[in-house]
Every structure is written in C-alpha cells, then in structure tokens.
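Q: Got a minute? One more chain.
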Amino acid sequence: MTTTSSSLSSSLSVGVAIKTTKPNKPHQFKSPSLLSSLPPSLSNVRFASDQMLLRGLAILLLLLAAAVADVPPPNKVVFILAGQSNMAGRGGVVGNRWDGVVPPDSAPSPAVLRLAPDLRWEQAREPLHAGIDAANHAVGVGPGLAFANALLRSGHAGAPVVGLVPCAVGGTRMAEWGRGTQLYSDMVRRARVAVETGGRIGAVLWYQGESDTVRWSDAAEYGRRMGMLVRDLRADLGIPHLLVIQVGLASGLGQYTEVVREAQKGIKLRNVRFVDAKGLPLQDGHLHLSTQAQVQLGHMLAQSYLNYGTSRL
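A: Always. Here it is, folded:
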C-alpha cells in the first residue's frame, strides 16, 4: 500500500506540474517582467489576442500576394486584337465545337499574358478569345499566341513580356465598330486598362470584313469606315501614330469580297500596314482559317510588326 500510495502521489505531482507549466509555454517569447506582472487570467486573454493578430497578419499577407500576382510587370508591350471571327479564332472548330488541339507555336508561355474579360491579367492560352467572343460561338485557335511567341523568339519584341488584349467578336460588321458603339467603347476601355500598370501599346491587329461583303452599301463604305476607325482610335488612345496592321480578307460571306479587299489595300493612312491572308487554307472550305493557317497568319503579323520596327530605325 505504501508503494502504491507513493506511486499515486508521484503521478499526481507530475500531473500538477504539467498543469502549472502549460500556461507559461506560449509566453516564452515575451518579457519575463511583463509576464510576472500579469495574473493568469489576463495572460490567457493576451495569448488569445496574439493568436488572432497572427492569423490576421497571415490572411493579409495571402491577400497581398494574390493582388501582386495579378499585376503584370510594367515593362510590357501590348497588342489589341480586334475584328470578327477569324481574329477571334475558329481554328479547330468543327460543328461549333473546338477540337482542343494547340499547335506548338501557340503554346502558353509565362512571358505572354492576356487581359481577361474581367480586366485582370493572366497567362494567355488558347482559346485566347474565350469569354470575349459571342457566347453562341465556339472559339478555337487564332493568330494571337502564334504572333506573340514569334515576337519573343525574334528577340526584338521590345519588352520581355507581351500582353494580348482580345476584343474580336464574330459576325460583326464594320458599322458596329464605329465610335459610340458598344464594341468600340469596350475596345478602348480594355486598351486603356491594359497600360494602367505600365507598358505601351505596340499595335492594333485588325482582321474584319467578311460580314461587309454581303451588302453593297457596307462594302462600298468599308474604306471610309476603316479610315475613321483608325483616326478615332488614335485620338481616343492619345497615340497619334498608332500602328494598325490589318489583315486582307481570305474569304467572305457575300459577293463583294473583292470590293472590301480593294478598300483594305487602298487605306493610305500613315502607319497602317496590310498583311494578306488570301490563299491561306480554310478549314470549312469557305470562311474560317484552319489551325495551321492561323499559326501562319500569326507569323506574318509578327514579321510585319518587326519590319515596321526596322523601318523606323
């Protein structure tokens, strides 16, 4: 019995020792003089308060890290992609479904960003115009990523990061892109947001006109409307010599395709370049460029931009 009582007494004393030392452990980082002046109840309150403060700081750091992740580097060159379906991209789209095939030249890169529909920067990937083009159209491969990757490979992009601002919407006529329209306002707003955090607009890449081949009135007005679009964009963005690279039609919806093509080639404004898509393969036989044709067009646009830079030297 004596042994048992002694063991029980020892166990109880150990238990008491543990209980009396536990509250002091969390306060070992604090000043001993401060601890000695606080009653146990206040020490517990101070400990809980400290834990809440640390949790709050951790959450704040996570939020700050997330915010910084959305801010692109200031030294970027930005390109506005506008027009209709062949700029938005229908490469690989069959039966209003995209096949999901991304060619190597259009692969995502950490150095190529996209301005998303909610005006946040994110890594660009196909389909580049997802969420931008009309919801009833399946979107596939376009020329944008092939263009950006070709620029970066050249070593003459002018910045370590390329920012792409998709704005194209399938089935739209030139009259729907004039100043005061929703499409024009959205394009200008997105272009302005793109350079709020630094960088510069390198060019507008424009591929549109298939819908203007249906009616003579649209085809006949194409040249004038395109000229006004260029002038208005330059004025509203505050870039008097903004480069505009327009793509000559490879196809059309109506009988006035050649009329629109001649109007495109006839634009005589300074810093308006012409890249001809005629002859590039069409996947559906009459309207939309195939995936490989879109990659080729991206390379052609990149070469036009690089040639423009060389001509200014």
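A: Residues 1-36, 58-69 have pLDDT under 50 and may be disordered.
Q: Perfect, thanks.
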